[in-house]
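Hey all, quick one. A colleague (J.T.) asked me to put the zinc ion job into the tracker so the inputs and the structure tokens live in one place instead of scattered across chat threads. No bug as far as I know, just bookkeeping. Sequence used:
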Amino acid sequence: MHCKRCGKAIGTDRGICPFCGAMLTSDQIKIYEQDKKESMKKVELITEKYGNEHVVFESSSSNENKLIGVLIVLGVLVLLAVIALIIVLNQ
Ligand SMILES: [Zn+2]
């Protein structure tokens, strides 16, 4: 689902947007729950078609992949900040 206020994709059902802190309306949460059901249906269909191997891949959802991507970007930024700090301190 997407936040009504900032428009970012939210992979959470905590009822609050992690990006801008906007409270999610019950309508939005309903839509999110609906999306979750839809994607579960999709996984079931894939299971029928291809078997369990693909379900493992499919259930490691894009939300987790996005989170890992964000963590990698943050790690690189911290590393760059540390390198910059070392360079500044050595001058
Ligand atoms: Zn937001």
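Adding what we noticed when we looked at it: The chain has two domains: 1-60, 61-91. The chain is about 70% helix and 0% strand.
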